[in-house]
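Batch job 17 of 40 flagged for manual review because the log was empty.
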Amino acid sequence: MSRGMIQSQRRVLIVEDEQCIRDVLVELFETDGVEVSAAASLDYAKWVLGRRTFDLVVTDIRLGGRRDGGLQIMAATGMLSPEARVIALTAYPDAANRAASMRLGATHFVEKPVPLERIAELAAQAGVPTAFTPSSPILRT
């Protein structure tokens, strides 16, 4: 196999305490070439971040009632997966959250509800395929 045909596995971490949203995001990224990890809590997400590096982290800003949970995830990502792109999701898009997210390295700050197509588009910019944007499209119409 030639070197150009080898595609490295992309790693995605989803951090979201609402199970229905977490499940939909995991499903979005479950595609060839992507290894998806999911965390429902701040502590578990930090544990996962300490064990491997990620290419993309999608995190809610409020986790389990903590207003700064997602900000702590971004800070940990900056130290443990410095190359990772971060998509911060929030239902509370105030200026303070936006400023703190950007300061902590969020690549994108997105207000909920967010269309899955938008997350897929942002992931594609980070070189991460999704169910909407597979790495090797078979059909183009």
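Reviewer: the log was empty due to a logging misconfiguration, but the result itself is present. The CA atoms of residues 63 and 69 lie 5 Å apart. Unflagging and moving on to job 18.
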